[in-house]
Fold this sequence. Notes:
The complex is a heterodimer. By secondary structure, chain A is of the alpha/beta class. Chain A has helices at residues 19-34, 60-63, 66-71, 110-127, 172-178, 184-197, 201-205, 211-226, 237-252, 254-257, 259-263, 265-269, and strands at residues 7-17, 41-47, 51-54, 75-78, 86-88, 92-100, 132-135, 139-142, 145-148, 150-155, 159-167, 228-232.
Amino acid sequence: MAGTRLEAWRLIDLGMAEPLLAQTFYEAVASEVDGGRSPNSIILAQPSAPYVCIGFHQELEEEVDLDYCEKNKLAVIRRSQGGGATYLDGNQVFYQVVARRDGEVVPVGIPELFEKFLSVTVFVYRKLGLPAEYKAVNDVVVNGKKISGNGAGSFGKDVAILVGNVILDLDYDSMSRVLKVPGEKFRDKMAKSMKEWVTSINRELGRVPSPEFVKALLAEGYEKILGIELVRSGPSSREVETWVSQVKPRHLSSEWLRMPELRHGNLSEKRA
Amino acid sequence: MLRVRAELVGGKIKDVMLSGDFFMVPENALPELESALAGADLERDGIEKRIFDFYEASKIQTPGLSPGDFVDAIMKLGKDARETG
């Protein structure tokens, strides 16, 4: 019997971090958690600059207006989880859960993982006064509109990963500007339809809570809902070393950024 | 959305690329699924069997997307794919 002692997880707050660090540091943590050298962890961060993030299985040039991103010095990052292309900036608070499935806290099934961990996201929005609800498979909605983007994955033998964000505010124009569209008319339509299906705390409440307050609510929610104890700590030196020597160079490489295309050079070269 | 590009030779899939905004856990199983489809006749029963067998053997999870969605997307190839054989 485990008794009444709560599982201790680590809480790492990266603060305002450069986009690549904010988006990918959890991969270094996952490697250490998988190796049994780091405890289950929750990472919180905000990107210090805007960037574009594509899903693991997306084709870069099909999704993103690369000329626009280059001209506007926007980094483009392929995340290690699936989902769609999006524009992210400091008005989103990221949470990234990295945990072994061998305890009682982490469900094996992905839908169950989303449902359990997104109840924390729901808790945060409700504490802020919004009528948030979980919507299967990976959404949190307020008044029918999506207000949190989430993805899940796995690492190594038995590590589950869940990444997502609390949306303080959204820049709809930039969101629609960075994506590739058939024509400019379509871009206006896309910005309009985004406003119909995605919202933010600012749009719903008319004010933006401080990121620190949101992070405190997230920590409270994880402890209460998962039944764990969070211990604040920095990353380990091995995690920093893994990020610098492996994760960062991998994400900056053309092989990673153009992964599906390069896997099938023959097919993508000949496309119309 | 699921995008399929393929090269067909004599009615068989020579190479196929699956991309889109879906989730697959583990994510790096996708190339193996693509490989499992190489050499298949573009015919529903056979494609279905290969995809269902792959799900069974690899224990992948694709939340929000069913094995049948992959089958349907691939069967649409008929009109879009380049026939080089």
